[in-house]
Amino acid sequence: MDFAELAALASGHAEARAIQTALKLGIFDMLERSPLDDAALAAAISANRRATALIANAMVALGLLDERTNRYSLTEAARRYLLRSSGEYLGGLILFDEAIFQTWTNLEQTIRSGLPARPTDMFQSRPEETERFIRAMDSLTRARGDAAYVADRLDLSNVSTIADIGGGPGTYTVAMLRRWPHLRATIYDLPATLEVARKILGEREPASLARIDLVRFDYLYDDVPGRCGALFMSNIIHNEDETDNAQVLRKCFRALEPGGLMIIKDHIMNAALTEPRAGAIFALYLLMATRGRDYSFDEVSRWLGEAGFVEIQLKALPSPPFTSSMVIARKPLGKI
Ligand SMILES: C[S@@+](CC[C@H](N)C(=O)[O-])C[C@H]1O[C@@H](n2cnc3c(N)ncnc32)[C@H](O)[C@@H]1O
Questions:
Q1: What DSSP line would sit under 233-264, residue for residue?
Q2: In degrees rounded to 5, what are phi and psi of residue 260?
Q3: Contact assessment for residue 33 and residue 73, using Cβ atoms and an 8 Å cutoff
Q4: Given ligand 1 and candidates 93, 122, 162, which is best to mutate, with the most ligand atoms within 8 Å of its CB?
Q5: Which of 231, 235, 248 for a ligand 1 pocket mutation test, highest count of atoms within 8 Å of Cβ?
Q6: 236, 238, 247, 265: which to mutate for ligand 1, most atoms within 8 A of CB?
Q7: Ligand 1 within 6 A of 326 CB?
Q8: Spatial contact of 303 and 132, defined as CB atoms under 8 Å apart
Q9: Whose CA is nearest to atom 20 of ligand 1?
Q10: Shortest-distance Cα residue to atom 24 of ligand 1
């Protein structure tokens, strides 16, 4: 690694905070219709003119705004990912990162104590936090394209019902229903999340609600009711510890029809837990905010094998843009 790369990594929080703040102030949305000079932009976001010019200049330096004759306009990347009106809006995730910045200030303390730095409540305690968290998941998955990519690569032709455990905003469920028109789905999740899911699906995919059941469910305490042909869990195992993950996968095994498909999507790490890089860094956030971390393929396949699954396979997603993989396994045909 050279000096420039190290320096950029070590001070990366400054760029992140500048982008988060520009987004939160509404700078990108204010430039959607036409370029503005610093005075007009400052008035539009109700901010100080000199300071607005400085943050707008910083966005020019980062390639998110253009500036000509003191008028700021959006670059192609900003128009695609930073406008609320865009189908690939990444702002939900960026605003969530802005909101959890305080959590990162506790990293030293968490490393010393090994204890979380915030309640491990999956943002269920305050409605505005739940909504920000669930919209962040939706925003990341839609902007990066995970859901459509995954739905295209799974063979669900012989599956009539799929359960999305901890399905959150339902972004993956909707993509699978689109790709597989015969399919019905159930999203199993905590009550506060389901309220947000209903809102998001109603806003964007009202027709899909006829094919989706939303069921209150706590995977730590409840058994999956009934039987399904496939079970999907995206970004779930990284929130829980080893014992709970092994137990959840045993429940999943019981809930599947014989021959049923278990699909896990997450950062799946190498045995040393150092690759992919995004997973190794994200594990620090998980340490501060959850009971989990990112797990290796060996760990996940051991839980699956102990639960009774066979044909356990790792399917890496192309990186970039993706940073996660799928682990797919099957319940043997003879097992009930
Ligand atoms: C990181 S989000 C992932 C959402 C979605 N699967 C995705 O990948 O976009 C974790 C999800 O698990 C849900 N969850 C967390 N703990 C849960 C529990 N004990 N029982 C059921 N759902 C839970 C959260 O409400 C949230 O929707």
A1: EES-GGGS-HHHHHHHHHHHHHHEEEEEEEEE
A2: -70, 160
A3: no
A4: 122
A5: 235
A6: 236
A7: no
A8: no
A9: 218
A10: 166
Q: What would the two tokens of residue 222 be? A: 């409840």
**Beta strands 161-165; 184-189: pairing state:** parallel
C-alpha–C-alpha distance, residues 253 and 313, integer Å: 16
Q: State if residue 123 touches ligand 1 by the CB under 6 angstroms criterion.
A: no
Element of type H or E holding 214? strand 212-216
CA 114: distance to chain centroid? 24
Domains of the chain and CATH, by start? 3-84 (1.10.10.10), 109-330 (3.40.50.150)
One-letter-per-residue 3-state SS of 100-151: CHHHHCCHHHHHHHCCCCCCCCCCCCCHHHHHHHHHHHHHHHHHHCHHHHHH
pLDDT band of 226, cuts 50, 70, 90: confident
Whole-angstrom Cα distance, residue 225 to residue 75?
49
Question: How much distance in Å is there from the Cα of 75 to the middle of ligand 1?
Answer: 34
Write the pLDDT tens digit of every residue in 4-60.
Answer: 999 999 999 999 999 999 999 999 999 999 999 999 999 999 999 999 999 999 999
- DSSP letter assigned to residue 159: -
